[in-house]
Structure formats: structure tokens, C-alpha cells
Amino acid sequence: MRTPNGKYTGVVGEVLDFDPPHRFSHTFQFTHLDDPPSTVIYELREIPEGTEFTLTTENVPQGTKSEKSMAQGGPFITKTLKSLVETGKPHFGARMILILIKFTGFMSPKRCRSENWPLTR
Q: Is residue 113 predicted with pLDDT exceeding 70?
């Protein structure tokens, strides 16, 4: 996850599993924290009423800032995905956060500069 200008990276990770449209999983590590990577799993499953979405986090170190942030992030991601599916755009709160990120990237710690987190292919 990078700022729009590409100068700062807030989260890094590697794709672990990609099985469209049923499952996507990846590692997840905040660049401003020293916590080890954890795993995030997104799953879609057909049910009689429509589609069920499950977001699971694994290996999140207990008692860390990563745990606190990810506990808040799960509901935010779920609400944003629901809004995208139903309306075609993120909910108002998500749009405001994206705008804030665009204009506050320069306040990111030096360790979050993208040069410290190169993309590998």
C-alpha cells in the first residue's frame, strides 16, 4: 500500500494464494512498526441468500500495535467492500481517508519511504 505519489509505503506483503473469485490471501506488515508479518485471507462463498464474505487474520502478534490496527481495519475493509459492490464506490469515510492519505504522506516516518521497501516481482 503506497501513497498516490509512490513516495511512501505503509504496508508490505506477499501474495500467498489467489483463486478468483473465491479466495485471496497475503502477508501483511506495517512498515512503521517492528511487528512481524501476519496473514490476511479474503474468501467469497455462494449461499442461497447471495454471497458470503469472510475476512480472516492469522498470526497477528497479540498485544501489538499491529493487532489493534488490524482489529479496526477488518470492519473498515468489510464496510468498504460492501459499499463498492452495492454502489460502485467506497463509502464516504473511506473516500475521506484516501484523501487524507494523499495529503499527509509527507508526514510518514522516514522508515516508510518506498526506497526502503522495494517492490520485487
A: yes
Q: How far lies 100's CA from each of 9, 54, 61, 107, in Å? A: 15, 28, 28, 11
Bond from prior residue into 118 cis (ω within 30 degrees of 0):
no
How many CB atoms within 10 Å of residue 10? 16
Q: Provide CATH code, domain 11-116.
A: 3.30.530.20
Mean pLDDT of 69-79: 93
Residue 121 has pLDDT above 60, yes or no: no
Residue 118, CA distances (Å) to 13, 25, 87, 102 in order: 11, 20, 34, 20
State how far Cα 9 lies from the chain centre: 12
Query: Which one-letter amino acid corresponds to residue 32?
Result: H
Global pTM value: 0.85
